[in-house]
């Protein structure tokens, strides 16, 4: 399995492309604002063709690139069911400070179609097995995405767990108690690489040993 990444300019979101060994098709993880040019360059260089987009959660910085990405690649979009409403009006799902910041970015926003994803649901796409693990706390519909290619596994943690930190819980839809339960679930996962929504990659064991929130 190969994991490629590019960064969206707005809030430096990691946008990933994942392919199974020996394949030319792939899946995309998250779609930050203005990520399409970087993704197009990356996918062209690697000879990849996306088959689906998985969103780790519905915060605007992870979804605002969908309009341009879907204009280039007409593929299905998957999002945790409790966050589905966030696609309808992204700027209104955060506090007033963020809403004002986002206003110029959502003037031409048209809510895309997305398929709801539920806890434990699995998909077989592009030679990969993708399993969603509900991990609320940052948002109601945050998901950990376990991606498996044969005996190899990686986990996309979105804004649940970062290298050395966790996602904030003080925005609308955040829940400190739910986050603690999600962190306990994270601690039971296998020791594999993790790829967060912001910042560098890490491993499950590294975060359990060094992340002050565990």
UniProtKB/TrEMBL annotation:
Q: Which residues form the Metallo-beta-lactamase domain?
A: 12-198
State one molecular function term (GO): metal ion binding
Keywords, alphabetical: Hydrolase, Metal-binding, Zinc
Q: Which Pfam families match?
A: Lactamase_B
Tell me which cofactor or cofactors this protein depends on.
Zn(2+)
Annotated PANTHER family = HYDROXYACYLGLUTATHIONE HYDROLASE GLOC
Q: What is this protein called?
A: Beta-lactamase domain protein
- Organism field: Brevibacterium linens
Q: What is the lineage of its organism?
A: Bacteria, Bacillati, Actinomycetota, Actinomycetes, Micrococcales
């Amino acid at each position: 399995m190969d994991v490629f990444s590019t960064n969206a300019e707005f809030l430096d979101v990691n946008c990933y492309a994942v392919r199974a060994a020996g394949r030319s098709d792939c899946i995309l993880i998250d779609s930050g604002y203005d990520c399409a040019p970087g993704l197009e360059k990356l996918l062209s260089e690697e000879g990849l063709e996306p088959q689906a987009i998985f969103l780790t959660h519905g915060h605007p910085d992870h979804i605002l690139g969908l309009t341009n990405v879907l204009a280039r690649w007409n593929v299905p979009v998957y999002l945790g069911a409790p966050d589905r409403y966030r696609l309808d009006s992204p700027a209104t799902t955060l506090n007033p400070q963020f809403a004002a910041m986002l206003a110029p970015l959502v003037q031409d926003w048209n809510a895309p179609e997305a398929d709801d994803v539920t806890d434990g649901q699995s998909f077989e796409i592009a030679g990969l097995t993708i399993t969603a693990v509900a991990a609320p706390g940052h948002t109601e519909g945050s998901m950990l995405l376990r991606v498996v290619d044969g005996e190899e596994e990686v986990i996309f943690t979105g804004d649940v767990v970062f290298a050395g930190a966790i996602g904030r819980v003080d925005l609308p839809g955040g829940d400190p108690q739910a986050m603690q339960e999600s962190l306990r679930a994270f601690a039971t996962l296998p020791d594999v690489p993790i790829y967060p929504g912001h910042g560098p990659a890490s491993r499950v064991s590294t975060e359990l040993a060094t992340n002050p929130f565990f």
